[in-house]
């Protein structure tokens, strides 16, 4: 993976530290990065998950689905005001393993946007778990795009109210 790709989605929850099972890896790249993935990897252990699919791939050796997201695309669905940034931007940080992972603020933005506009409650639950795991407060909202701040504050309140069942 180069600076033209970054990892996002459920796979990135672990460093923040929230672990949940996920069956795919979300990679953010540029149009050039997508072309490079196809020229270098497709047919060499990576295959499209269906005829004509360029952004839904599968690693056949590890039996893992790979979802490719392109910089500039809306996070969640077409109506989302949040766009995936370039993977070489500040929204992705290089970890010790050399892989660029979404930062906590970027991951929260992607998860909240996907939850709202993509109608994915699992992503809102992930965002709430990130709030709890990182002991985030309302003031972290200033790190997020303005359209997400109210929902983020609501997630903080919900995280505080949540009780463990004994």
Topology-level CATH name: Beta Polymerase, domain 2
Low-confidence stretches: none
The average pLDDT score comes to 86
Major sheet size, sense and barrel closure? 5 strands, mixed
Counted up, domains total: 1
| End-to-end gap | 44 Å
CATH architecture: 2-Layer Sandwich
Please bin the fraction of helical residues: 25-40%
Number of helices: 4
Structure commentary:
This protein starts with a strand and ends in a 5-residue tail after the last helix. It is elongated. The protein has helices spanning 31-40, 104-117, 121-133, 149-161; strands spanning 5-8, 24-29, 46-48, 56-59, 64-70, 92-94, 100-102. The longest helix is centred in the middle third of the chain and has 14 residues, at 104-117. The strands form 2 sheets. It has a 5-stranded mixed sheet with strand order 1-2-5-4-3. Strands 6-7 form a two-stranded antiparallel sheet. The chain has 166 residues and is α+β, with helices and mostly antiparallel strands. Strand 4 (56-59) and strand 5 form a beta hairpin. The chain is built from 4 helices and 7 strands; from the N terminus they run E-E-H-E-E-E-E-E-H-H-H.
Task: Sum up the structure in keywords.
five-stranded mixed β-sheet; 30% helix; 4 helices; single chain; alpha+beta; Beta Polymerase, domain 2; 166 residues; two-stranded antiparallel sheet
Question: Quick summary of this structure?
Answer:
With 166 residues, this protein is of the alpha+beta class. Helix content is 30%, strand content 18%.
């Amino acid at each position: 993976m180069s600076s033209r790709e970054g990892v996002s989605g459920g796979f990135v929850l672990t460093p923040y530290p929230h672990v949940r099972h996920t069956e795919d890896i979300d990679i953010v790249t540029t149009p050039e990065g997508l072309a490079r993935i196809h020229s270098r990897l497709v047919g060499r252990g990576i295959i499209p998950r269906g005829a004509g699919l360029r952004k839904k791939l599968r690693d056949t050796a590890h039996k893992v689905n790979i979802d490719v997201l392109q910089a500039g695309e809306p996070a969640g669905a077409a109506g989302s005001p949040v766009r995936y940034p370039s993977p070489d931007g500040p929204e992705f940080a290089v970890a010790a393993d050399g892989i660029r992972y979404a930062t906590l603020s970027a991951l929260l933005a992607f998860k909240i946007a996907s939850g709202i506009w993509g109608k994915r409650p699992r992503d809102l639950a992930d965002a709430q778990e990130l709030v709890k795991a990182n002991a985030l407060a309302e003031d972290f909202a200033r790190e997020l795009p303005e359209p997400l701040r109210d929902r983020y504050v609501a997630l903080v309140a919900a995280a505080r109210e949540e009780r463990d069942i004994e």
